[in-house]
Amino acid sequence: MTEIRYIAPSSLEEAIGAYAAAAGAARILAGGTDLLVQMRAGVVSPGTIIDIKKIAEATGIEETPEGGFRLGAAVSGAALAEHPRFGQAWPGVLEAVNLIGSTQVQGRASPGGNLCNGSPAGDSVPAMVAAGAVVTLQGPNGRRTMPVEAFPAGPGRTNLAPGEILVSFTLPPRPKGSSDAYLRMIPRTEMDIAVVGVGVNLTLENGTVTAARVGLGAVAPTVLLVEAAAKALIGSKLEEAALEAAAEACRAACKPIDDKRGTIVYRTKVAGVLLKRTVAIAAERAGRN
Amino acid sequence: MAKMHVATTINGEPEEFLCEPHDSMLDLLRGALGLTGAKEGCGTGDCGACSIMLDGRLVCSCLMLAPEAEGRKIDTIEGMAQGETLHPLQQKFLEMAALQCGICTPGVLMASRALLERNPDPTETEVRFWLAGNLCRCTGYDKIVRAVLETAAEMRGAA
User: Fold this and answer.
1) In the UniProt record, does the keyword Zinc occur (chain B) (predicted)?
2) Partner B contacted by A77 (CB < 8 A)
């Protein structure tokens, strides 16, 4: 292994300065559950490792004055699960984050790392897309925000500009009657990579869907926001016709690969099935809120 | 490049060490610190044989850089028994023969203790999901799960 420098700055400005100075030869360390594996495999060999876990903004879980949540990019799955209110407001986001790896991996792995890894199958991403999360990025030219669905650029690629760091996720306030859910299809019961993942976020008023978002993972080069599926649900009372129309929208959005985990035909069919199951869970939860 | 100086706490005692920036915590524990209880199974966070506690959370020490230990609190299997007195989990694993070759055992014990600290009355399903990141090549899972459930019951009784 070539010489590596490790730094753990306590301010974002310092981290961004070091990241920019390294001109592409640095990697950001959050939980390290992807980065250290990639380094060991020789896939990446950074000159500088910048640990962002000493930066308060990157590790905090805050409730915003508007009633939403702001999650630091490096918050671990375990820390998120321990928060007294996050899981009540966003059970779908929480279950998606908590599906990533084992208990040990949850002690370190973060939603920010999951997003920056750029995998189309990252479990937290469809749930964040469904939640309408907005990511905050900061680089040498300052701060900007973008909807989470605009962040991935392709397998292993993101729309971070050179020198930019993912700082946090902001989740919107929760109107009454809202909830979310995430389901993934894997060939075994635990510790596997999604063949299809579906995140659904719903708001119900007297049984009628007034707002909906659907995120679809592992069936295209990036996680998708399926607006046509949401449109099919909004205004309905989740009758079979509306569910079938939303499922068809998900199947139509699929552009999957054929691999050992699932064929194109299988992934496409499962996307529709999972949409219906995930909607049912989100609706049941929303009915209680 | 100069080695990094790291000051940390291991099993309740202050500890200092020198490391390369890319050393894993597991390398340091098993090497310079001589704490060989944690094992390297896969080196990629899949097997759990290197499980330790970092600030009260279960992590794979193979997926942690040694310099990350600065200012943190680490607990390893070496700190589990109190002198000659085994932790109830250790005692029960012996009594119920919940191990074969023993390579996975330190990680399984660390993970099981972390579970019982959070959930003193887990169901069998909860034990199996919690321990899903601890692989046993001897396929001794049933005895492990039974020993954890039995220990939990005893510890509840004693409390």
Assistant:
1) no
2) no
